[in-house]
Amino acid sequence: MSRLLREAIHQKKQFLISKLLLSGFYQQDDKRLRDYTLSELEKEYESLKTLKKEPLQ
Q1: Pfam families attached here (predicted)?
Q2: pTM over 0.70
Q3: DSSP for the chain, written as a single string
C-alpha cells in the first residue's frame, strides 16, 4: 500500500509542477519546484489560481 501512496503523491506533484510551469510564472529550469513538498506545491498552485482571477490594474 505504501508504494501506491508514494506513486500517487509523485503523480500529483508532477501534475502540479507541470501546471505551474505552463502558467509561465516559473521557468522550465527552475529547480525549486522539484524540492517542494506536495503541500507547498498545492499552496503555490492555489495562489497562482487566485492571482490569475484578480483583474489587471
Answers
A1: Fur_reg_FbpA (PF13076)
A2: yes
A3: -HHHHHHHHHHHHHHHHHHHHHTTSS-TT-THHHHS-HHHHHHHHHHHHHHHHSPP-
